[in-house]
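Appendix B. One record, verbatim.
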Amino acid sequence: MTVKQARVGLVGCGAIGRTHAEALGGIAEADFVACCDADIQRAQDFAERYGVRASFGDPLELINSGNVDVVVICTPHPSHAPLATSAAAAGVHALVEKPIAVTIEEADKMIAAAAAADVNLGVIHQRRFWPAAQRMRAAIDEGKIGVPIYGECFARLWRNADYFQRDPWRGTWSGEGGGVLLNQAVHAVDLLQWFMGPVTEVYGHWANLAHEGTIEVEDTAVATLRFATGALAVITASTAFNPPAGFRVSVLGQSGATLSLCETPEGTQGFNDVWTVPGEELARERWAAEEAGKPGFPQFHQLQIRDFLRAVLEGIEPAVPGVEARKAIELVTAIYESERSGAPVHVGVPGSDQT
């Protein structure tokens, strides 16, 4: 049986671009036809490595070539909005690496442009596709813990000077748009709000405490959240933990039961480290034994990219559309604003369903 395919072009042939290329190679619905990088030699080498037929040095040439149905954007964060809006103008669907953008205004422009052009806009939050994350969301939806009343998420990571010096855009406000919150912890923030529901108030602090002289952006942040339900949560994030502890997201329900997932070491598949739903404690031990420590890349990128391509081919919405990814960036930018203003920040889009 022949599988219908979407023609895919990839922009940005760096490290995360390679993750996407490896994922695309295992997706029947993907016809990976083109790649692009500002360094044309890198694009040509990338094309040869992954068997891609065409390489470009200008992303607009790829987008407007008429040879792609979908563009996968793996470039520095500030370029996401102009590339995605250009794709929409050309009638091309866009799948963007996280974060969706560096400001809410840019995210909204991307979402509006995609809607006006009737194309899909998706954003990579592949950790939602972990069985552990799916299991937690299902348990909450099924009422197994009652209404969530308290949440925690932490990103306790380590990045050395070599990491930030790898590319000139890293660790800068102009090139990256933010630090640990925007680049790393946004994964955990996305999961927290996905489990807990709409946030109404954010109060946060951030600082550069361990990488002074190496980066401009924050390496450490803390925040408290208040949800529409009255629930509370805390966020802690840092790239100064050595040794690192990875990511963890926990939810306490009104019933007294707690659900949690943990990704340690970073880059492996997350697993449920706490699960106190009555009668399911032994199941958690089995799940953890099956999932803990397994590779986290690129198979969960592959699951999300496949979901997006199927949505394009079937004319439906993907699992993580732009409006979903907007929620995490709204919380991150609210933490930035709270530190600058010294006051809590009220968030939420009137009339929207953030659950």
